[in-house]
Design a protein that fits this description.
Length: 625
């Protein structure tokens, strides 16, 4: 990769000029909203001309409504839509999706200052600000209002956004700076992409009345009309895509069964339940989080690549999404203590140096620290510096899984070992050894290293199980850190007198029992990584531990989505959510969101490139052609 093709993760923020307390763009020389009354302008131009209050009221249970917007700006249009959604939506499981692109996003401080102008939106603004992502390019899914509102923010060019995202809009807000000042947003190519993401009956509205824009939309099949503008603007335009109005096709078709109650399966079950979908959650063990997700502690982190490629983008998206997803469980099952990725040997020091040279990340995500600062942040003497992730930490995954499974719409069938899946009359028949068969319209296999045994395509998919043993360290035996330290091993802070370290990486053992040899391996490598961690000269390998088996793929990337056979034929109604390896705590929230999007027919949280990278048919042993 040449210097000219390096993609920095960080994206350039908006250059804001404040005039009489109002935000203007220094780059485009235009205001973000009307000086007369920006909120009333939004309601008049976008909400009323898209007939949103009436359309919200008429939604059926578990419908979704999709608004797409060109130019997120201060988020005022989004908050006004959210407020109208709260006021007019029926009291059912319907979900509002708001999809917006922004090439120059506001910093959190500028966003707060702008939204402080609208006190009546304060509770919504506070929730948006709490979830507002770091300024890194790409797709960000924000789950708000207890799942009733989902905001998909694309930080990047609007043409890139509409080319990457998968959705069909019910209404469009064509916002952004005036066409004369920001012509790229109003190109004919953008109008064509708007048409691609619309359907008969999709409406749109825009503050502009420029004839070129109206004609371009008419050429794409929209029936446009000119109407009086707001305030000092004489005219605006609004329209509808002609043709027979389609019915809402986002409602899921029937029942969903999830096999596997680890972190992936329970997050997916809770995600679907929050959207009003009834789920049957099945596991061979007697409780959730009893297999690989059952460790007392787990570190939540990823290792971001030196190159900002697709794999790095997926890891970064998963990292930021998981930080938001776990926040409701702070202090109970989620402990964001910060995490040090230690430059523990010369090879890792060199890798981190190249990483920092080639990438720019916001400091709220990560920043380099020297040994002295790292020692202060972790509360444990370390010989080297590293990368500090201030919003990472550790989880109690087993306890979290059990909490996630507690929901009125989740029917837990624990102690049920599924033997096979068989199609029957358009549904899937799950047979079990105890005879309690289950029939479902859709099935998600989230069974970790047991996945291959359940796939109804015997021998076609390849996965591998990797034995991992963690070691439990008594608090009195170590100088325990106050933050997570990762390197050759990871070490968590103590909880209830124990700290967890590990894990081994054994491709050739299927032994489910804790061994002294594996404990010794963990202890020796941890001691080499953190000299002086053990006050005594030696700690015995007879300490307690736990064994789990990770499910890993040949390319070490996770698997999520609709199954297909090795000829590329989709296996209708069967989905996979597996192959998360040792980073399941980080990848599972985002990929559960993605599979839930697919199951409900709602807009996908992953752009096309990332969706392609996790597609299940990568696991086929052979390919057609």
């Amino acid at each position: 990769m040449t210097d000219s093709t390096i993609r920095s993760p960080a994206i350039e923020p908006a250059d804001i000029v404040w005039r009489e307390g109002m935000p203007e763009s220094a780059r485009f020389g235009d205001v973000y909203f009307s000086r007369d009354n920006g909120l009333e302008e939004t309601r008049y131009v976008f909400l009323n001309h898209n007939h949103l209050p009436d359309r919200f009221r008429n939604l059926s249970d578990r419908d979704s409504f999709v608004i797409a917007e060109t130019g997120f700006g201060t988020g005022l249009n989004f908050l006004a839509s959210w407020q109208a959604w709260q006021q007019h939506r029926p009291g059912n499981g319907s979900v509002l999706h708001f999809i917006s692109a922004e090439r120059y996003p506001l910093t959190r401080d500028d966003l707060k200052r702008a939204l402080d102008l609208w006190p009546e939106l304060a509770p919504l603004a506070e929730e948006l600000l709490a979830h507002y992502p770091p300024l890194v390019r790409g797709t960000h899914r924000l789950v708000l209002d207890e799942g009733r509102v989902r905001l998909t923010l694309y930080f990047g060019d609007v043409l890139e956004a509409w080319g990457a995202l998968s959705f069909s809009a019910d209404a469009w807000f064509l916002d952004g700076f005036a066409p004369a000042l920001n012509p790229d947003m109003w190109l004919d190519q953008a109008m064509a992409l708007i048409r691609e993401h619309s359907k008969p009956g999709t409406t749109l509205a825009t503050f502009t009345a420029v004839g070129r824009i109206r004609r371009a939309l008419e050429d794409e099949g929209f029936e446009m009309r000119k109407t009086p503008g707001y305030g000092r603007k004489r005219d605006m335009i609004a329209g509808v895509l002609t043709g027979s109005t389609s019915t809402n096709s986002s409602t899921p078709s029937g029942t969903v069964a999830i096999i596997g109650a680890g972190i992936a399966g329970t997050l997916l079950a809770r995600n679907l339940a929050s959207r009003g979908v009834a789920v049957t959650l099945i596991d061979a063990e007697e409780n959730a989080g009893a297999a690989a997700s059952g460790n007392l502690q787990g570190a939540m982190y990823v290792k971001l690549g030196v190159e900002f490629n697709i794999q790095t983008e997926l890891a970064l998206s998963a990292l930021t999404f998981s930080q938001r997803a776990y926040e409701p469980y702070r202090g109970a099952f989620w402990h964001p203590t910060g995490l040090l990725q230690l430059a523990w040997n010369p090879q890792e020091q060199d890798r981190q140096a190249r990483f920092l040279e080639r990438n720019q990340y916001p400091e709220e995500l990560l920043y380099p620290v020297d040994a002295a600062t790292a020692s202060e942040l972790t509360g444990t003497p370390v010989a080297n510096g590293g990368l500090w992730f201030p919003n990472n930490g550790w989880l109690s995954p087993g306890s979290l899984c059990r909490e996630l499974a507690r929901h009125a719409l989740i029917d837990c069938r624990f102690g049920t070992r599924v033997d096979r899946l068989m199609p029957c009359n358009g549904k899937w028949h799950l047979s079990s050894r105890d005879g309690s068969d289950i029939i479902a319209d859709s099935v998600v296999i989230a069974a970790g290293h047991k996945t291959a045994e359940l796939i109804p395509l015997k021998g076609e998919y390849r996965f591998k199980a990797i034995r991992g043993q963690v070691t439990h360290l008594p608090e009195e035996a170590i100088r325990a850190p106050k933050a997570v330290i990762c390197g050759q091993k990871y070490l968590n802070p103590c909880q209830d007198g124990l700290a967890v370290t590990g894990a081994t990486f054994d491709l050739h053992s299927a032994d489910p029992l804790v061994t002294r040899e594996a404990n010794n391996e963990n202890l020796e490598q941890l001691g080499a990584m953190l000299p002086g961690l053990f006050p005594e000269e030696e700690i015995s390998g007879d300490v307690e531990g736990r064994v789990g088996f990770r499910c890993t793929t040949h390319d070490y990337q996770p698997v999520a989505g609709v199954m297909a056979d090795c000829n590329g034929q989709s296996l209708e109604g069967v989905y996979l959510l597996t192959g998360l390896g040792s980073k399941g705590l980080t990848y599972a929230p985002l990929l559960a969101e993605y599979v839930a999007d697919q199951l409900t027919g709602q807009p996908a949280c992953l752009p096309a490139t990332l969706a392609h990278s996790v597609r299940p048919d990568r696991m086929c042993r052979r390919r057609a052609g």
